[in-house]
Design brief:
alpha+beta; 207 residues
Length: 207
């Protein structure tokens, strides 16, 4: 299943995601400046905490504002060719939307996420979209497929807690909510043709 989420115009990796307009001023923003921030804000872009999913966030000028957020189910056990299909679909959608860069997060164990991460990296490179970060999150730890420095991204992963993130706190302060994953009913994965409107599309609450 593919979910496509579009923040309202004015959404900002320095990055940031736009929030409701402040009275008499510019829309407030939530800055995404670290892997923890990315993992903390994804549930608020989607409206729920993802599990066994690949989430791709596309940004574009000005100031790398969030333009589109895509989520794909990662079936367990993996289906042959599925990682290639979802990566190609994501790359086609981002190219169609003139996205210049993307960050992504896969949720689940390595055998589930790594094939999709590799395919996404290759497909985005072919589409001319810069992949700035690709994370895997599982059991309270995250790993980066981009960073190779063991000083900040050790082999055992980095502990994180989205509930203690400043980005998460800012989203809650703005009145946003992210449902627990257990409240989301699983559905059969489906990919629509990339040139057409993607099914299950909805506009997320502003950040």
């Amino acid at each position: 299943m593919t979910h496509e989420h579009r923040p309202p115009a004015g959404g900002d990796r320095s990055g940031s995601a736009a929030g409701p307009a402040a009275r008499g001023g510019a829309p407030p923003v939530i800055r995404i400046s670290s892997p923890r921030d990315l993992l903390a804000i994804v549930p608020y872009l989607l409206g729920f905490h993802p599990q066994r999913s690949l989430v791709v966030v596309g940004v574009r000028p000005p100031r790398d504002r969030v333009h589109v957020c895509l989520r794909y189910d990662l079936p367990d056990p993996p289906e042959p060719g599925y990682a290639r299909d979802i990566a190609a679909h994501a790359a086609a959608v981002l190219a169609r939307e003139h996205v210049t860069a993307a960050v992504a997060a896969g949720y689940g164990p390595g055998p589930l996420v790594t094939p999709a991460a590799g395919q996404l990296r290759d497909q985005l490179a072919s589409a001319g979209v810069e992949l700035r970060e690709m994370l895997r999150a599982d059991d309270g730890r995250y790993w980066s497929y981009v960073c190779q420095d063991p000083g900040c991204c050790p082999a055992e992963g980095v502990p994180f807690d989205v509930a203690t993130s400043a980005a998460s706190a800012a989203a809650v302060t703005k009145g946003l909510a992210a449902l627990p994953a257990a409240t989301i009913s699983p559905r059969r994965s489906h990919l629509a043709p990339a040139p057409a409107a993607t099914p299950w599309a909805r506009r997320p609450p502003p950040l």
